Amino acid sequence: MLLRPVLNIDPHAAHLSQAETISGLWNFTVHPTGLDHGQLANIGTNTHVQIDAHITNNTNPHGISLTQSNLTVTESFTAGGAALSDAVDIPLVIDNLGGTQNIFEVKDNGSAVLSIADGGNIGIFALPVSSAMMRVDKSLSYTSGNYQAMNFRLTQDIATSGEIVGALGQAQSSHASGNITGLVGLKGYLNHLGAGALVAGHAVYGDFVIGAGAGSVTSAFGGRFMIRNADAAINKAYGVYGYIDAENGSITNAYAIYAEEPQVALGSIARSWAGYFNGDVQISSGKKLILEGSANQKGDSYFVFQNNRIEVFINGVLEGYIDTFGFVSV
Question: Which helix (H) or strand (E) holds 83?
Answer without folding.
Answer: none
